[in-house]
Amino acid sequence: MNEITIRSYDESDEEQVVELWREVFPDSPAHNISQEDIRRKLAVQRELFLVACRGDELVGTAVAGYDGHRGWVYYVATSPRFQRQGIGSMLMHRVESDLADMGCPKLNLQVRASNHEVVTFYKSLGYQVEERVSMGKLLKDHS
Ligand SMILES: CC(C)(COP(=O)(O)OP(=O)(O)OC[C@H]1O[C@@H](n2cnc3c(N)ncnc32)[C@H](O)[C@@H]1OP(=O)(O)O)[C@@H](O)C(=O)NCCC(=O)NCCS
Known about the structure:
Elements: E1 4-8, H1 14-24, H2 31-43, E2 49-54, E3 57-66, E4 71-78, H3 87-101, E5 107-108, H4 116-124
Helix pairs in contact: 1-2
The protein binds coenzyme A (COA).
């Protein structure tokens, strides 16, 4: 029962996912925002919303997407009690493999510049820091 399995998100995972994100993301969004993020993801490439489970317990997440040019991944998280046991790496390997199967040539991700531990995590998986300016714009809310 200690085995970790990676599978696509199921609606019954919502409570555990929201709780995990609240626990691990310092500026974690309010519950209703997380639920909105989940709802939007389920409408687009929902199979790329991955969860790591240990029995019935949800211990990790990764939310990926492919736009036809690049893959992106968000919400990569491991429950604090299970960190440094390879679960984050398992999730990222599964994301990479699923995206590669879709023909995606490159995976991008963003990390807060101050989050050195997470940069170390991604470097351990072969990611390199690329000098870019990250830009964004809020679009009209279609919710
Ligand atoms: C980043 C995160 C997902 C890593 O998950 P994890 O399951 O602990 O990762 P792994 O066990 O697969 O770690 C693989 C390697 O990454 C590096 N690493 C992971 N966490 C690290 C940390 N806190 N400090 C330094 N190196 C770290 C190590 O090299 C580690 O190998 P090792 O344990 O043999 O030394 C997890 O720390 C987390 O959920 N953080 C909070 C959420 C977050 O900030 N997510 C990133 C959003 S961009």
